[in-house]
């Protein structure tokens, strides 16, 4: 049965997503997920969210998608063990070594492979399955053929973003250190790693979305610069959802821990309705086109605001 995975960038967002029908909520702990601290939760808040999901028959997954150094691994695993004791059902993890260590430490937990792992082909799925992962998030550039090949290669669970396949752009998400070129900055006390320096992949440091900013490219033959983006934005999905379910996708993910609560509320409500309809056998989704179009406009607007804020923050650090 396909499940809807929704963000919990705050306790309010997490509880709202549960109320609107999300099956699983994912949350990031301070200092151990790749988001700014404003979108992360304290341990007490993670416990509160977990209690709420349990009370409503839902699940909580904790995003531990940083690359822990050798000096952090003990703290990393201690955090995971504490959250498991809270009752969270699993984790979203990037680092291969951390996945194996978590599987040994908490044998019965559920492990997602994060988009930060940079999945490139179907054989990566088999590799992460051998480490003990239960489900792998697929790039949203993949369509039915790639999903089918992955299903043929491995029995790992398949997770996709609720984005349409977009074949444009120069790079794919994952394994990116571009933000680190802008700034290595010291951690804030609130991030629980005082006097520590990190980058976008080393803890809760921001990804500044530099791939989505406008870049000027030119050549010696044609010095007139051309403005392009390294990665094009993907649109919210609708038409592909039934086909993905048919191909065995088990989890559909909404991103957006940093988005407004009202945006996530309406998206969860919309996709809960769509998924229930498809799972009930209704494949004609044309009647939802207008509602989706409005949500797409709102999504792009909020994404633009977020990108502007991140770039302003990056520039302030550089200054």
Task: Provide keyphrases for this structure.
TIM Barrel, 8-stranded parallel barrel, 39% helix, 319 residues, alpha/beta, single chain, two-stranded antiparallel sheet
Explain what this protein looks like in three dimensions.
- The longest helix is centred in the C-terminal third of the chain and has 30 residues, at 289-318.
- Strand 2, helix 2 (43-55) and strand 3 form a beta-alpha-beta unit.
- The chain has 319 residues and is an alpha/beta fold.
- Helix 3 crosses helix 4 (96-105), helix 5 (122-131) crosses helix 6 and helix 9 packs antiparallel against helix 10 (289-318).
- It contains ten helices and twelve strands.
- The chain has a single domain (3-174, 232-318), classed as TIM Barrel.
């Amino acid at each position: 049965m396909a499940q809807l995975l929704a963000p919990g960038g705050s306790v309010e967002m997490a509880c709202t997503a549960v109320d609107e029908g999300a099956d699983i909520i994912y949350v990031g702990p301070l200092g151990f997920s790749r988001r700014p601290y404003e979108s992360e939760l304290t341990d007490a808040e993670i416990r509160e969210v977990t209690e709420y999901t349990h009370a409503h028959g839902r699940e909580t997954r904790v995003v531990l998608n940083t690359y822990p150094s050798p000096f952090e691994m003990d703290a990393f695993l201690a955090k995971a063990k504490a959250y498991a004791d809270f009752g969270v059902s699993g984790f979203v993890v990037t680092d291969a070594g951390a996945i194996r260590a978590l599987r040994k430490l908490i044998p019965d937990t559920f492990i997602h492979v994060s988009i930060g792992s940079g999945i490139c082909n179907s054989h990566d799925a088999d590799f992460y399955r051998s480490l003990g992962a239960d489900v792998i998030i697929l790039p949203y550039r993949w369509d039915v053929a790639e999903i089918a090949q992955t299903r043929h290669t491995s029995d790992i669970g398949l997770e996709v973003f609720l984005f349409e396949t977009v074949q444009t752009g120069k790079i794919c998400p994952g394994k990116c250190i571009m933000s680190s070129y802008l700034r290595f900055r010291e951690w804030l006390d609130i991030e629980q790693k005082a006097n520590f320096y990190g980058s976008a992949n080393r803890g809760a440091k921001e990804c500044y979305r530099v791939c989505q900013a406008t870049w000027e490219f030119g050549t010696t033959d044609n010095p007139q610069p051309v403005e392009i983006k390294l990665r094009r934005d993907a649109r919210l999905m609708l038409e592909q959802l039934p086909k993905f379910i048919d191909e065995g996708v088990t989890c559909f993910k909404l991103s957006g821990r940093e988005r407004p609560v009202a945006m996530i509320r309406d998206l969860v409500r919309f996709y809960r309705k769509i998924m229930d309809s498809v799972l009930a056998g209704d494949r004609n989704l044309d009647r939802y086109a207008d509602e989706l179009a409005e949500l797409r406009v709102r999504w792009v607007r909020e994404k633009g605001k977020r990108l502007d804020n991140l770039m302003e923050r990056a520039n302030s650090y550089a200054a």
